[in-house]
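Consider the subject:
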Amino acid sequence: MRLFLFLFLLLITNLIFSQVTPAEKAALLAFYNATDGPNWFSETDADPTNDWDFSGNVTNDWFGLTVSGGNVVSINMNPTRNTNNPNNLTGVIPPEIGDLSSLRTLSLFAENLTGTIPLTLYDITSLITLDLAGNNLSGTIAPEIQQLTNLVSLYLQSNNFSGEIPVELTTLNLLQVLEIYSNNFSGEVPIEITNMINLRVLTLSYNQFTGYLYPEYGNLINLNKFHFVGNSISGIIPSEFGNLVNLRSLWLGNNDLNGELPTSLGNLANLQALNIFGTDISGPIPTEFGNLINLNSLMLTNNNLSGVIPTSLGNLVQMNNFNISGNQISGELPASLGAME
């Protein structure tokens, strides 16, 4: 009898504490309506078991939803993060999203959302991952983003965002991934971004950024990926980029860069892709590039490089993509690169 009573009380307790609050359920309903929930692919397919059914309790069975401890902790409408497999969300992100105060993940990748980021979203201070990439969102990043102090990953690429990066974003000390390429951001990137030493991925390509490459970027020693292609960045590549010894991918092409390729880039022994194309960079290819033994892609096309191909490039036995066309470089390719002529 006691065991039965204990199990009964445990069941009742679990039921009570597994239910989301009325405010969270109302926020989910607002999100469902604002993004045309009845026409989501998950709602119109042959599987009714994962539908959002507001006549009953909110559960983990709802597509893309994770509930824990009586709170919604994750909304992920494209779990495979496949651009060819979104969930057909259209419309806008409603302001009621801010009532989901325990969210750790909000992923709306590659949908058809428009409008702006509601200011209330920045009230969700528990957010760890915010993925709004691949939509048609517009507007700016508000200074209130500084409230997201637990944020680790921020994906805003492939939208229509504009304006400058607010300096408040650079106070997010836990941020490891900042992907904002293919938008309409402009102005200079705040130099304070070079204080974000936990960054591992920084992609700023295909915007309208101006200014230059700060030597202080060399402080970001944990970077694995730094892409800054297709902007209006001028000046030289600082020698301090040679400090980024954990880099695997460095893309700086289609900018107004000048000067010479710094020999210090030869320090980047973990580098796998070095793509610097369509600039005014001149001078020789440094012989130190022969130290980049893990490099499999070297794209230096359409610059003003001159001189001869260093024989040291014969050390790059991992290379499968080598292109230096559109320069004034002479000499024969090392034997190890000959198959790529």
In short: The chain has three helices and 23 strands.
